[in-house]
Write a structure and sequence with these properties.
Part of the signal recognition particle protein translocation system, which is composed of SRP and FtsY. SRP is a ribonucleoprotein composed of Ffh and a 4.5S RNA molecule. Helix content is about 50%, strand content about 15%. The chain has twelve helices and ten strands. Helix 1 packs across helix 12 and helix 3 packs antiparallel against helix 4. The protein is elongated, with a radius of gyration of 21 Å. Bound molecules: guanosine-5'-triphosphate (GTP) and magnesium ion. The site of magnesium ion has 6 residues, from helix 6.
């Protein structure tokens, strides 16, 4: 993704408002008056983090760190939020990765994978729009040959992004389409190829095999391809995202994670355990359905937004 767009922090904050509202209310209740931090309030804090789906391990680590700094001291709501944001930001700092297809080899081939409805097609569309707006020559490949409406949905995004579009009738072989498209992209000097795939339940081996086949055939054209395999995870499924990461990571291989729909849940904290459990970094986050609602993952900004604080101080 390009540099953060104007107003992106506001979008992030708006997107994460359900999570931050849940956390904020709890913090306000727990720390209504400035008073020394005691064990009872620490426990409430930890409970709140678990409720926001940060997971027991992160919640415990963050609480411990917080206790080490503040136990017995007078703390108010604002200080709690600042300290919490810092602790969450530190938890995530090493788990971030850049998604930058225009500085890689050409054509840069990106494969989108994930379960049904996680946001693959939408994320692909948003990325395509960003890339074409920066002048890149982009090809979109409708590798979801499984679901009838999938091609039309993607075509809408391709038109919106003014990207070229490759598709075949429903039921066609996705791997053959991917092969021919990549071959064409190489011959015609494309900068980026974005390959959509059919949503799959992680327990349906047939569809997993199809993904492996797509990867196998494009490697014949470029042994380093796909240069990026983005696993798209829906934040609203909560801790189920952890299982998905595990299965796709092991069976297919993942180079980066996109977490979508952070705007659709009060449990956006789930990004934290996913980031920690995953071998691959979080690269992008989705905070809405619109074309500008995809952002590079910025751990500090995420942490501040999640607890309801304003922009990262310069
Ligand atoms: N609120 C919100 N909705 C999103 C976000 N990303 C995607 N969606 C919506 O989630 C729904 C599913 O998104 P798709 O992009 O079709 O998901 P998919 O993974 O391609 O789904 P399949 O092709 O069925 O596997 C759509 O209604 C999207 O608009 C997001 O960040 N926030
Ligand atoms: Mg789709």
């Amino acid at each position: 993704m390009s540099e953060p767009k104007k107003g992106w922090f506001q979008r992030l904050t708006a997107g994460l408002s359900r999570t931050s509202k849940a956390m904020g209310e709890q913090i306000t209740q727990t720390f209504v008056q400035k008073a020394p931090l005691d064990q009872a309030r620490l426990e409430e804090l930890e409970e709140m983090l678990i409720e926001a789906d940060l997971g027991p391990h992160s919640a415990a680590r963050i609480t411990e760190r917080f206790a080490a700094e503040k136990f017995g001291k007078d703390v108010d709501e604002a200080e709690i939020k600042e300290a919490l944001a810092e602790a969450i930001g530190d938890e995530l700092a090493a788990r971030v990765g850049a998604f930058d297809p225009l500085s890689g080899p050409r054509p840069y081939i990106v494969l989108f994978i994930g379960v049904n409805g996680s946001g693959k097609t939408t994320t692909l569309g948003k990325i395509a729009a960003d890339l074409t707006s920066r002048g890149a020559k982009v090809m979109i490949v409708a590798g979801d040959t499984f679901r009838a409406a999938a091609v039309e949905q993607l075509k809408v995004w391709a038109d919106r992004a003014k990207a070229d579009f490759e598709s075949r009738p429903t039921g066609s072989d996705a791997a053959a389409l991917a092969f021919d498209s990549v071959e064409k992209a190489k011959a015609q000097g494309y900068d980026v190829v974005l390959i959509d795939t059919a949503g799959r339940l992680q327990n349906k081996q047939g569809l997993m095999d199809e993904l492996l086949k797509i990867i196998r055939v494009i490697k014949r054209l470029d042994p380093d391809a796909p240069h990026e395999t983005l696993l798209v995870l829906d934040a609203t499924v909560g801790r189920n995202a952890l299982a998905q990461e595990n299965i796709f990571g092991n069976q297919i291989g993942v180079s980066g994670i996109v977490m979508t729909k952070l705007d659709g849940t009060a449990r956006g904290g789930v990004l934290v355990p996913v980031a920690q459990a995953s071998d691959s970094p979080i690269k992008l986050i989705g905070v809405g359905e619109g074309i500008d609602d995809l952002q590079p993952f910025d751990p500090r900004a995420f942490a501040r937004s999640v607890v309801g604080l304003s922009e990262v101080p310069q």
